[in-house]
Every structure is written in C-alpha cells, then in structure tokens.
Specification:
This protein is α/β, with parallel strands linked by helices. It has one domain: Glycogen Phosphorylase B (Rossmann fold, 3-Layer(aba) Sandwich), CATH 3.40.50. Helix content is 32%, strand content 18%. It has four helices and seven strands. A seven-stranded parallel beta sheet has the order 3-2-1-4-5-6-7. Helix 3 links the parallel strand 4 and strand 5. The model has no long low-confidence stretch (mean pLDDT 95).
Length: 145
Amino acid sequence: MVATSAGGHWVQMRRLLPAFEGLEVVYAGVGTALDADLRPARYYRIRNVSRRDPLGFAVIFWQLARVMRRERPDVVVTTGAAPGLMALLVGKLVAGSRTVWIDSIASVETMSLSGRLARHVADAWLVQWEHLARPGGPEYWGAVL
C-alpha cells in the first residue's frame, strides 16, 4: 500500500513507483481520485488531517482500519505527512504490515514532526538528506528527487 498526502508528498511517491513494478499496489490518499495513468488500481480516499484537527485523527483511524482489514497490505510505504503516518500506525496495528517512512525532501534542516513520530511505527525510517541520518536512525538510502 502506498499512502500519502497531496502535493509534494504525492510527487515524491510518484517518483518511487517504478520500484513497485510487478507488485500489486493499492493507494490511500487525500486526493479526490487516483491519477488516470495508475488506474485501474484500487484507491481509497482518506481524510486529510493535521495536528490542528484532533477529531480528524479519529475519523482517519477508522477509515484506514476499514481499508487495512479489506486489503491486508504486506507493506505500507509513505512519504508523509500526517495521513501517511496514520497509515503506518493502522497498518501495523490492524494488518500486521511492515512499514516504511520516507521523510519529505523538503525537510532540509530537521525531520518533519510526522517523521519524528514515525520512528515508533516504521520498520524502515528514512531521510532524504544525508546529514540528517543518525546512528540508530533515521537512515539515509538516497534522495527521491
């Protein structure tokens, strides 16, 4: 499963999609629909949340729980932000999924808040700037852009 917010998070994830060639990919995102070139893949629209929307976290949790029970993804991958973080958490709790967090390339000087929180649920916890990598994580495997 690929789960992301819109905008730059989705652009970065699009750059990673060739790595999933030959695999069945399901998408969860905050956009109204999946990009036409990725159809007929399954797409689940989820609520866009931020730290200023505490009620939204309860809504997205239940939306993602339904999706995870239906899809049972082996792996959940995200470039963020809060909706992606929630997908990692719910994927791990509900489906036992392995999880990958790739912090946004826009986080140049420090990790994003969601990225820092992802350390607790990500099996692979990654940054796109080498100078942000630390012993024990996050790790740098390269940049998407």
